[in-house]
Design goal:
The protein is mainly α. It contains 8 helices and 6 strands.
């Protein structure tokens, strides 16, 4: 069967259209660096690419949450370190003032220093970050600790009151994994973890202990100072215990952060396999397609010049 000129033209037009479409796809891939720009480019790749993108977005969200948690823990740790150092200095003073050779004037001088250290403890317990009180539970806009009476010292019984709550702030650091980020001041400063207004068994009210030491020094009573030494050790251990817990949590967050980073790398690699183009291969194919297109145009041009006279 003879091929008519119309059939020839139709075949040439079909080839030009197909070549043009392929050329446009390659140009798009070269420009974007992606071989999957439209669903029609590879329908089977859409589902894995969308799944990978979702997991990458989730990893980014968890990583941001984890970093926020780490920032908070690092801030808290700095203030807890200050509190521990203050308690160490108070213990040094207590040991020094037990010495019977000191005069009442000497003990008064130490009492004044203890008063300053107690004020420092109060400031650290009322620490803020980004305008929010760190140790107030959910009541981040409420100053957690206030003196019973601004005219310090007051009394060794409840010298400072807690105005925050017992709220626990939880961060989701991975699917279905929540961690307690915050630390309430009533737990580590007043020894009242359940916030019932009473010091828990085995715990101490640090402000009460320090105030008692100050009052004993002002009264020139070394025996009363000595009687608070065990409570002072308990206070230091109390702060250290909570600090250790937050340190362990910090390690857990760093591990989770590393895990999320690895997930993101793996998902980026997975997504790239379906979506990203091999630039070198794409440029080579583009050049070949351009040559094919030019050849098709040349053939079409020659065929279009044929007429019946060419066969006579």
């Amino acid at each position: 069967m003879k091929a008519t000129q119309t059939t020839t033209y139709r075949n040439l037009q079909f080839f030009l259209d197909r070549t043009t479409t392929k050329l446009q796809q390659l140009q798009m891939q070269a420009a974007t660096g992606k071989k999957l720009n439209l669903p029609s480019d590879d329908p089977t790749a859409i589902s894995p690419v969308l799944s990978a993108r979702t997991q990458i977005q989730n990893a980014d969200r968890y990583t941001e949450t984890i970093q926020t948690g780490l920032d908070r823990i690092n801030n808290m740790d700095g203030y807890l370190d200050n509190i521990q150092n203050t308690l160490i200095r108070i213990k040094e003073i207590s040991i020094a003032t037990i010495n019977g050779t000191l005069s009442s004037s000497d003990r008064q001088t130490y009492a004044d220093e203890v008063g300053q250290l107690r004020a420092s403890l109060l400031d650290d317990s009322n620490a803020q970050a980004d305008g929010r009180y760190m140790f107030a539970g959910f009541s981040e806009k409420t100053k957690p600790f206030t003196a019973t009476n601004p005219a310090l010292p007051v009394s060794s019984t409840n010298p400072v009151i807690y105005n925050g709550d017992n709220g626990v702030q939880q961060f989701e650091i991975s699917p279905n994994e929540l961690v307690d980020i915050n630390l309430t001041g009533n737990a580590f400063m007043l020894g009242d973890a359940d916030n019932d207004g009473a010091t828990d068994p085995g715990a101490v009210d640090i402000f009460s202990v320090v105030t008692s030491i100050q009052e004993a020094l002002e009264a020139n009573d070394p025996a009363a100072v000595s009687a608070q030494m065990d409570n002072l050790d308990t206070a230091a251990n109390q702060v250290s215990s909570y600090r250790s817990k937050k340190g362990n949590l910090g390690s857990r967050l760093e591990t989770a952060q590393s895990h999320m980073s690895q997930i993101k790398i793996d998902m980026e690699s997975f997504r790239s396999r379906y979506e990203d183009a091999d630039i070198l291969q794409t440029i080579t194919s583009l050049q070949q397609q351009e040559q094919s297109y030019q050849a098709a145009l040349d053939v079409t041009g020659r065929v279009s010049k044929l007429s019946i006279l060419d066969y006579l």
